[in-house]
Every structure is written in structure tokens, then in C-alpha cells.
Amino acid sequence: MRRPRADERVPWSAEQAVTFLTHCRGVDPAFADLFEVVIGTGLRKGEALGLQRQCVRIDDRVMYIRHTLSAIDNHELVLTAPKTMKSRNWVPLSERVAAALQRAMARSTSTDNDHVFQSADGKPLHPAAVRRRFHELREQAGLPHVTVHDLRHLAAALALEGNVSMAVISKTLRHSTLSTTANIYSHLTWEVAMAAVHTIEARLCLVEARTHGVNTLALSGPVPNPLFSHAA
């Protein structure tokens, strides 16, 4: 299989993600919880940093994305509207994400702001500081270079590997259109698509054999991925 084009995302594997989170829990639990939430939900970095306590409902296993935290000229922190209208939406919480949010809110005791994720001095986390700390932790864990935003793509890749439909992934990531999701992650759908056609083939062959006594041969080998071919 050929390597994806430069504009295609190559996120970590699930094993690499676990290695990273395990390392973070050992050396920096606060950042471990932040990255647990990003990986577990596909939030954008600014959305996670702009998350407010009143927008998290642990008992209902849901949070509401109402802000994104940005730095003006890489200095002044401001809360702005999410990237698109569809970005302003609800996001379901898994058990491990809910637990990470609970731990984060237990640490964020400042009365000056309602941010879920705060620095040790009670201020909102600066996006540049998060980016620097992410790469420090990544290098310590011995993992290949990715960006914080690539953790969002990791979330999509893990969902695709679990046979979650593109439409559901698009809803979870809150993309403006389904085509946006399909265009970004087309190179990650090959294995899922092949599994689907092999399932169809196996079902047809089984019924055919039972009905007509016809023996059919399985595919002799893997089919080249046209998304990575020269003709693509």
C-alpha cells in the first residue's frame, strides 16, 4: 500500500495513542486528561481549551460546545464562537472521557473563570503552551511527530476502524457537511470498504453454495488500494 499524499492525514495508531496517554498519566496527569478528552471526542484544541464547566453535564454524559479559546497575536486570550454553525453542538461522553472531565473540573478551582482546563495558577491554558507541552510529552514517549489537531483525526480513524459510519463520524466531529468528512478521511476508509465488500461476497458465496452446490474461490490476495495508486 502506497503512502498517503501529503495533504492526507496519517494519525497515530491506537497502540501509539495508548502509549502516549499512559506516559502522560505518569508524568503530567492534568495534560493526560486534556488529551484524553481530545482523543475521545475529536474536539478541536480551541474547543477543549474554551470548554466551560456549565457546558459539561456528567450525569447526562454530554457536553455542549459553545466557545473556542484563541490567542490574539499569540498573546491575549479570547473566547470566540466555534468554527462553524455545526461546530456549536452537543458531544456525547464516553465513560473514560467523563472521568477525565471530572478530574479536570476537580482541579480547576479558580473563581476567576469557569474553564474546565486551567493552568496551575488558575488561568485558562494558553494554546501555545499546550502545543509545546504536547510535543514535549510526545518526544518523551518516543512517538512520531503529529500535531495536536491530528488527535482529532486520530479520533476519526479509531471510529472508522470500529466500522462507525461516515455520517455518524461527521456528526460527532461536527463537520459542516458530510462531504467535508469524506474528503478528509477518504484514505482511511479503504480497509473498512474492503471489509464491507468481503462481507457481501462471503454472504453471497455461502447462499450460492447452499442453493446450487457451487464452489466459489476466495480472492487470491489483497486488492490494491486505488486511493494510493498512480491512477488515483
CATH class of the largest domain: Mainly Alpha
User: Mean of the pLDDT scores?
Assistant: 79
Q: CATH superfamily membership of the largest domain, which one?
A: Intergrase catalytic core
Q: Characterize the biggest β-sheet.
A: 3 strands, antiparallel
* Number of helical regions: 9
The total count of strands amounts to 5
* CATH fold call of the largest domain: hpI Integrase, Chain A
Radius of gyration: 21 Å
State the end-to-end CA separation. 13 Å
Provide the number of structural domains. 2
The helix content, as a percent range, equals: 40-55%
Ranges with pLDDT <50 over ≥5 residues? 1-7, 218-232
Strand content: 5-15%
Order the strands across the largest sheet as they lie in space.
1-2-5
**CATH architecture classification of the largest domain:** Orthogonal Bundle
Provide the structure class.
Answer: mainly alpha
The arrangement of helices and strands along the chain is HHHEEEEEHHHHHH
Overall geometric form: elongated
Kindly describe this structure.
With 232 residues, the chain is mainly alpha-helical. The protein folds into 2 domains: 14-183, Intergrase catalytic core (hpI Integrase, Chain A); 190-228, no CATH class. The protein is built from 9 helices and 5 strands. The protein has a 3-stranded antiparallel sheet, with no helix packed on it. A two-stranded antiparallel sheet has the order 3-4. β3 (68-72) and β4 form a beta hairpin. α1 packs antiparallel against α2 (29-41), α2 (29-41) runs antiparallel to α4 and α7 (166-173) crosses α8. The radius of gyration is 21 Å and the shape is elongated. Mean pLDDT is 79; it is low at 1-7 and 218-232.
